[in-house]
Amino acid sequence: MRWGARLVPPLLPLMLGAAQPVAPLSLPLIDFVHVDKSDRTLALYAEGQLIHVIDGIQLGGAPVGPKRFEGDQRTPEGLYEIDWSNPNSSYYLSLHISYPNAADVAYAESLGRSAGGMIMIHGQPNALPVGRIPGDWTDGCIAVSNEEIEALWESVPDGTPIEIVG
């Protein structure tokens, strides 16, 4: 065996850097949430200051354009609020978005349709043991990692305004 070959395995962790545990995301009380669907970001504000941005959010299976009808797989656009939370959802924790508002309902009804509802910010499916489902896969909700929804769960109270733009 060559001299260098004996050193590589023991030194490999030093060269690559030992894996360090990542501290959970800790946020102050959030008073405004801004979602940009085209940038795939969820920005969190406290007292008018940008506190944190979550990148790589996942949306409904048809992400372009505002939600108009039940089953269109679009994520709403507009000003809403986080109005309640559900610790027992089919996805890891969930925060309900107050869609549909009166204008959303009126538009859908004018075309003889239902506006839908049950739009949430949530983690990954409870049946998924680890990681994230790739791509856009919700029925119009906003999905984040389980670690991110834990931080949101702790820091975004009911009544927090959320603006969703395309």
SSE layout and pairing:
Blueprint: H1 3-16, E1 32-36, E2 41-46, E3 49-55, E4 78-86, E5 94-97, H2 102-110, E6 120-122, E7 142-143, H3 146-155, E8 160-165
Overview of the structural elements:
Keywords: Cell shape, Cell wall biogenesis/degradation, Peptidoglycan synthesis, Transferase. Residues 31-165 form the L,D-TPase catalytic domain. Pathway: Cell wall biogenesis; peptidoglycan biosynthesis. The chain is of the alpha+beta class and 166 residues long. The chain is 20% helix and 25% strand. The chain is built from three helices and eight strands; from the N terminus they run H-E-E-E-E-E-H-E-E-H-E. It has helices at residues 3-16, 102-110, 146-155, and strands at 32-36, 41-46, 49-55, 78-86, 94-97, 120-122, 142-143, 160-165. An eight-stranded mixed sheet has the order 3-2-1-8-4-5-6-7. The longest helix is centred in the first third of the chain and has 14 residues, at 3-16. The termini are far apart. The relative contact order is 0.23. The model is unreliable at 1-16 (pLDDT under 50).
What descriptors fit this protein?
166 residues; eight-stranded mixed β-sheet; alpha+beta; 25% strand
Note the main sheet.
8 strands, mixed
Shape, principal axes of CA atoms = globular
Sheet with most strands: strand arrangement: 3-2-1-8-4-5-6-7
What integer is the average pLDDT?
88
Distance between the termini: 61 Å
Low-confidence parts, pLDDT < 50 over ≥5 residues? 1-16
Report the C-alpha radius of gyration, rounded: 20 Å
Q: Note the beta-strand portion.
A: 25-35%
Structural class: alpha+beta
User: What is the H-and-E element order?
Assistant: HEEEEEHEEHE
Annotation, overall tally of beta strands: 8
Number of helices: 3
Helix content: 10-25%
